[in-house]
Amino acid sequence: MDGKSPRNKKPGDQNLKQQQLDQYRVSNIGKPMTTQEGKKKSQDQDQLKAGVRGPTLRQDYEFLEKMSHFNHEEIPERVVHARGYSAHGEFECYQSMKHVTKAGFLQEPGKKTPLTVRFSTVQGAKGSYDTARDLRCKGVKLYTEEGNVDLTTIAMPVLINQDAMKFPDAMHAYQSKQDDDIPTASGAHDTFWDYVANNHEALHMVLWIMSDRGILRSYRMMESWSINTYLFINDQEKATFVRYVWKPVLGVHSLLQDEALKIGGLDPDFHRRDLREAIDKGAFPEYELGVQLISMEDEFKYEFDVLDPAKFWPEELVPVQIIGKLTLNRNIDNYFTESEQVAFNPANVVPGIDFSNDPVLQGRLMAYRDTQQHRLGSANYVELPINRPLCPFHNNQRRGYMRERIDVDQVNYHENSLANNTPYTTPPEEGGYKYYPKKVEGHVIRARSKSFEDFFSQPRIFWLSLTPIEKQHTIEGLSYQLGKVKSKSVRQQNVNLLVNVDKELANIIADNIGVDRPSGSNVSVSTRYPSLSQASTPSYAFTQKVGVLIANGFNGNEVKNTLNLLKQYGVFVVIISNKLGNVTGDDGTRIKVDETFITTSPYLVDSLYIVGGDRKNDEKFSPDIMKYFRVAYEHYKPIGVATTGRSYVQTLESNNLAGVVFAANNSDFGKDFVTAIAQQRFWDRK
Asked: Which parts of this chain are annotated as the region Disordered (predicted)?
């Protein structure tokens, strides 16, 4: 990692999608201002008037063009996933998957496919904040040689509903209330929890959201699953059930609830800023793609139904095979054209990928194109640069709002003789898409499979798989959310539901939210799966953000060595002092200040390096450092203490200073501090 901006590295130079987008990229710097039709403007600050104090004139077309464009700039925001952010990158295949799929981008080890990614929350509007406790989504659009593949995933392996017919109900209940449009970006209100209490299939995903998974630290540290069950089809026309999972190379890490709430006010753009900053610094986010495969013959082998989107496939029973890696190596240049206008659709697949009878997936195949056409105003949204495939596309579709391509042939129907029956269809053996001929039988009926009806076994498995600290965080999440519910009846109903998962959990929540402890008991399940806990996730110092609290008079040699070591390990360093400018060490070393105590916050860094320095003539410096130390310590963050900063840290009987590393009399301070940064949290701290 050389620290250069990806803009300088230009990874798109070898990326075919970026080459395609380059023809649409325009820089206005150094160019004359014109109207949309190209007429050069001589003035752009005042309307055309009859005299300097007179009325404006109707002939002022330049004003009309400028203002009318402004009035129409916004498009309908997404009904869900409105709050999102994007980046570009590539996918590299690790191993050939031709034994299970003929999808071209999965045939050869080392094959690279350009892509774009959009991360998003679900509940909040476009202007909400990033760190809300919510379900998060990751849409990946792969620009393959056979056409676009849209792989949409969410940050937990289970969904809130088992049939697409219920999705509007779940979202209506989850989003802000109709009377006051409150709350923003939160399910902590009566209608959502009333829905949960009366739709038991929702409980499983809700438990995941109430756990640490619901308040992730960074999009770069987000695990995500396809939820839906797809089919892989090989060239012998053999089908295999498949679910996808993206595993972040940096591991899966979360905020504490208090941090998430505070950061939402301090920096509503926390996650998108974090993503953009990492890419700009060359610390490209990476995610390995895993697949879970179940043979068609084993469809009924497991205690869960493989088609139930509200159930996970345990990794301990259905191993994850890592087959490739996604790397995000370029930031978007224009949010509107590259993120707001990107349109995903799970129906976008290529030969070798097909659809199971998963009832949520079946509904999504119909819903996505309709919503994208509504948002973007025309069926021609696929012609937008960000959505356009790399491979040629030809059909008989014409006209419509904002049709861009100029089809010069006069025949637009099939079959025909005037154009020799072109565009022509392609036989499957030559690459034409063929749906898997799965057997279908049964009566036409609105009903759900009985095998979907176990609503409590997997939620209990998830609960039992959490560590004590993860359980405590989940209790805090439930207590906070249900504590906001005004209806005592709804609070009681949810406690009565939770008892099916765990009796002790339900009793604790009941006591916390002022309702009766429930009768009954939890289901008789004792299974635990380590893969469901974040405890075993990888942890690195790489890209962790350290706030350096510093003033003039610091030990120049000591601090220089420490900062150099942090940068060697890829740690992001933020220099914080009482004023912008430079701070000077005892040996003349000058360090540029990035932030002041006013412009940033201890909530916005992952750890602290308390350097201190000369405090004379500054009565506020010491209280500011003490505030930062207290917040970092209370949130279990690593803290490094320079020799000049020792006076800020008091050893008391009430604390054990776990995770606090001192430079004094410690020749290995730098390495010890890096090790602490990599650990990220010290739960044994008191």
From this structure: 1-54
Q: What's the rounded mean pLDDT across residues 355-361? A: 94
In this prediction the pTM is 0.93
The DSSP secondary structure of 29-42, one letter per residue, reads TT---B-TT-PBPS
Rounded Cα distance, 283 and 2, in Å: 9
Is 219 marked as a binding-site residue?
no
Give the least confident one: 58-62, 246-250, 539-543. 58-62
Flag whether 368 is marked binding. Answer: yes
Assign domain 456-532 one CATH number from 2.60.120.20, 3.30.450.180, 1.20.1370.20, 3.30.70.1620: 1.20.1370.20
Question: Residue written as tokens 């130390």?
Answer: 629
Q: What angle do CA 283, 284, 287 make, to 5 degrees?
A: 130
Strand pairing partners for 13? Answer: none
Q: Identify whether the C-beta of residue 678 lies closer than 8 Å to the C-beta of residue 659.
A: no
| Exposed / middle / buried, residue 32 (Cβ in 10 Å: 0-12, 13-18, 19+) | exposed
Q: Which residue has the tokens 């996970």?
A: 312
Integer Cα distance of 132 and 677 in angstroms: 25
User: Whole-angstrom distance between the N-terminal and C-terminal Cα of the chain?
Assistant: 37
Is the distance from CB of 243 to CB of 229 less than 8 angstroms? Answer: yes
In the block, which residue shows the tokens 């770069």?
220
| CA nearest neighbour of 15 among 113, 105, 94 | 113
CB 495 within 8 A of CB 522: no
Query: Residue 206 — pLDDT band, cuts 50, 70, 90?
Result: very high
**Structure tokens given for 380:** 């021609």
The residue-averaged pLDDT of 128-152 equals 96
- The whole-angstrom separation of Cα 207 and Cα 198 is 15
- Going by C-alpha positions, the residue among 64, 197, 183 that lies closest to residue 133 is 183
- Sign of the C-alpha dihedral computed for residues 27, 32, 33 and 35 taken in this order: negative
Q: Are 281 and 565 in contact (CB under 8 A)?
A: no
Q: Is the pLDDT of residue 405 over 60?
A: yes
Pairing of strands 321-331, 286-295: antiparallel
Question: What pLDDT does residue 65 have?
Answer: 86
User: Nearest CA to 287 among 140, 389, 110, 81?
Assistant: 140
Computed over every residue of the chain, the mean pLDDT equals: 93
**CA 463, CA 475: separation in Å to the nearest integer?**
11
The answer to whether 53 is a known ligand-binding residue is no
- 527, 461 contact by CB (below 8 A): yes
Write out the CATH class of domain 84-383.
mainly beta
**Integer Cα distance of 131 and 494 in angstroms:** 25
Q: Given this model, what pLDDT does residue 8 score?
A: 37
What is d(CA 146, CA 346) in angstroms, rounded to the nearest whole number?
A: 16
Alpha carbon separation from 189 to 146, 170, 180, 181 (Å, rounded): 46, 13, 12, 11
Domain ranges of the chain: 84-383, 456-532, 545-679
For strands 545-550 and 607-612, give the pairing.
parallel
Name which residue leads in pLDDT, 3 or 598: 598
Whether residue 258 is predicted with pLDDT greater than 50 in this model: the reply is yes
How many angstroms separate the CA atoms of 159 and 136, rounded? 11
What pLDDT does residue 150 have?
97
User: Annotated binding residue at 167?
Assistant: yes
Strands (E), 49-162: 84-93, 112-121, 136-144, 147-154
Q: Is 344 in contact with 118 (CB distance < 8 Å)? A: yes
Q: What percent of the chain has pLDDT over 90?
A: 81
Question: How deeply is 66 buried, as exposed, middle or buried, from its count of CB atoms within 10 A (0-12, 13-18, 19+)?
Answer: middle
